[in-house]
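Q: Could you fold this chain for me?
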Amino acid sequence: MKAHLNLIVIMLALTASLYLGWRVTQPELTGHWHVHPAYQTSQDGLSGVHHFKINGNGEVRINEVLDEEYAVTGYVDKLFLTMHLRLECWYESFQYRIRGDRMDFWYEDGEHSRWRPVAHRFRPGDCDPEQDYFIDLPISITLPRDTMGEYPVIPVTHKHLTFQVGRDRFNSEIKALAAGYRKILDQDGLKDLIRQHSLYVPPSTRDLPAVAIIYKDASITPDELRTALTDDLQTITNLDGYYLAHRNPNEEGLALTFRWVAF
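A: Sure. Below is the predicted structure, expressed as structure tokens.
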């Protein structure tokens, strides 16, 4: 009996030692990782993934900048060295390995299998959360700065329309996009968006004031903004102005305030 107890104690001690050894040899994964643009494709299974954060509990949060916003999530299985990503319309999993601040994924490429460097870890302060926020847009936006106090809270309504207005990353031409549509919209496109948006507004809220939220590059003047949006904002029912996003440079991370601008 005593021999059996001794054997059980030895096995438990060995198991605990192996587990502790495994934990010690595990690479540190926590931090903010940027995906190399070459791998942000559907073929690589990372379409739309520009950066991700790994928390201490192994949770993965994709493209998250503002804490209160919705983020697609995943998790890391350290036992099998696998990352699982729950993307918008599909699920992907990859074997991974860590080499310092570089993360490689194992890819099946036809008859060949190989490791490919996919992401690089950024240390705190190495990247700008504002640029991360707009990283998936074909336009560049640096928000106007504002260190003033509180502003009116944006009304809760079903008629929010959000626009981004910035400069084309290749030719600096001013262009406007509508939120949720990752393509440039011309005048007819904006009108169609407004019409489609109105169709989905519940009858009980159609008489409420519409709300337009605009994120624009600080270098764009009010006249250029109106030209970029081709005055279509004024065609929205009951719209007499918009909320313009600003960044407070005195706050950590990306702290946004919204100032009311009347037409």
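A (continued): The chain has two domains: 28-127, 131-262.
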